[in-house]
């Protein structure tokens, strides 16, 4: 999940964009921004960085195995095609 500090920073940036007349309500609006951001991000189907990295490694190993099998298949096809036929 996204760290709370990042959500707080984004909420503060949004609050800083408010017009000058709303500066007094900045803290309340900032808290509302924070709540809305946390709720919205909580509904997303996100994975952690660790889960992403694990799946990336699995995919890399799978790709390497697939490439090795493709090379084996090509070699077998070549061998089959070069054998004399009776």
TrEMBL record:
Q: Which GO terms describe its biological process?
A: ubiquinone biosynthetic process
Query: Where does it mainly reside?
Result: cytoplasm
Q: Name one GO cellular component term.
A: cytosol
Give the pathway: Cofactor biosynthesis; ubiquinone biosynthesis
Keywords (A to Z) from UniProt: Cytoplasm, Ubiquinone biosynthesis
Q: Report the locations given in the UniProt record.
A: Cytoplasm
InterPro entries in the cross-refs: UbiK
Which stretches are annotated as coiled coil? none
Highest taxon of the lineage:
Bacteria
Q: Which family does it belong to?
A: Belongs to the UbiK family.
Q: Which PANTHER family match?
A: UBIQUINONE BIOSYNTHESIS ACCESSORY FACTOR UBIK
Function description: Required for efficient ubiquinone (coenzyme Q) biosynthesis. UbiK is probably an accessory factor of Ubi enzymes and facilitates ubiquinone biosynthesis by acting as an assembly factor, a targeting factor, or both.
Q: What is this protein called?
A: Ubiquinone biosynthesis accessory factor UbiK
Write down the species: Dokdonella immobilis
